[in-house]
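Batch manifest line 499
LIGAND: pyridoxal-5'-phosphate
JOB: complex structure
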Amino acid sequence: MKYVSTRGKTEQATEYSSAEVIKRGLAPDGGLFVPTSIPQITPEQLEQLADMTYPERAAAILGMYLTDYTSGELLHAAEEAYGKERFSSVETAGTPAPVRAVGQTEVLELWHGPTSAFKDMALQIMPRLLSLALEKTGETRDALILVATSGDTGKAALEGYADVPRVRIQVFYPVDGVSRIQKKQMATQSGQNVNVTAIRGNFDDAQNGVKQIFSDPEVAKTLDERGIFLSSANSINWGRLVPQIVYYVSAYCDLLRAGRIKQGELLDVTVPTGNFGNIFACCLAKRMGLPIGRMICASNQNNVLTDFINTGVYDRRRTFYQTVSPSMDILISSNLERLLWLIAGPERCAAYMEQLKEKGWYSVEPEVLAAIQQEFSAHFCDEGLTCSTVRTYYETYHYLCDTHTAVALSAAEQYHAKAEFTNRMLVASTASPYKFSPAVLEAIGEEVPTDGFEALRRLQKRTGVAAPERLQALEQEEDRFTEVVSPSEMQQAVLAFGK
Ligand SMILES: *Cc1c(COP(=O)(O)O)cnc(C)c1O
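JOB STATUS: finished
ARTIFACT:
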């Protein structure tokens, strides 16, 4: 399997191997890497997959795309990444990604991993794929991953990269810009190859600092002499996307085995969407032949994707809202570029992206919009509706969901209210309610204490739903990283760590 850039001209597009693509992250022309063809899963293969464990399913699906990895390497990586030491649901439900029936809806829980959010599904395995990619591409240097985080991604990346050979990771976060639990999660991180530094400033200062370090040739040269190159853990890396296809296939298999769907029966899927990575993985699963009907793109108040899918106009020139579902607070949805490439081709895709950069908006041709609407619907949810959905599911089904999942549950309901005919609905649940305890407490009508750990305890006491052990244990753990620097000292911190 070869890969090209979403912006490369069809005729003379350079092709890359999967290991090269994982090492590079972004294509040299600024586009995203996409496979030149989409492998197919036959109904017979789907039946075989249904008899496999999650790591075996993962190795089989990854093997269709990552053809320069051996099946042994992929199985080993998947067994390590998705074992019971890392995903609590493996012990209780036999899989890192269990499907729970909630009323008429099937909820795919993607948050049983070490940081209690769905990014673990990709970030637990991707670092192992990167480490192997260094060998396969003959890279002699080690990778140093730089991350600026507003909270969630930093911790998920730290957990994924900790103690992975030939890779180290440096995370920067704004000292007053993350919650107490998030800060504690990062400050206590284990691993010989990790470093965490707080900066005096906000998230933009951290982000800009990282961008400057990336573009400074002196830094690159100094690190190169020490046998190190800089890399990122960004969600547009193909190595983060392909593991996300696996859980859609796996969910279908589990529903088949449980007799909740019949072989070949179509499943609709609703995904709470920010950067369009998760829902695009679902789209790929569908194109591979998995029986998926419609995909419903769920957004919060930052509803740029709802407007785009309904009108064909993508316009980022709008108010940015900070919501109770912060991981979806995004105005530029990077992975949408991969869908545009798939539907409109590289020339038009490159033109849309150019116009987005220059003018802040673009519109697609009527036939492109029609093709998108053939597969996708879109709905959004404001703050009030998000909170009332948390409450309704709790009161009606005793199902406690987080705010991001609530956005998706509401979008699925909105879709059903309009649709003439519907299939069984699978809703992707992307975070543990305890990751967002204060917002969830408030939604179910409780008073919210100022301390995050106190909020967690109160939510557990009030609902009787068990909180993830790792989040609870955190309060007692010793901080390893306490350094706070100013943004101008970030470069120095990177050079001191990259020795
Ligand atoms: C990252 C994230 C999302 C958005 O996923 P995308 O792949 O960026 O669309 C949704 N919910 C949670 C909890 C997340 O962490």
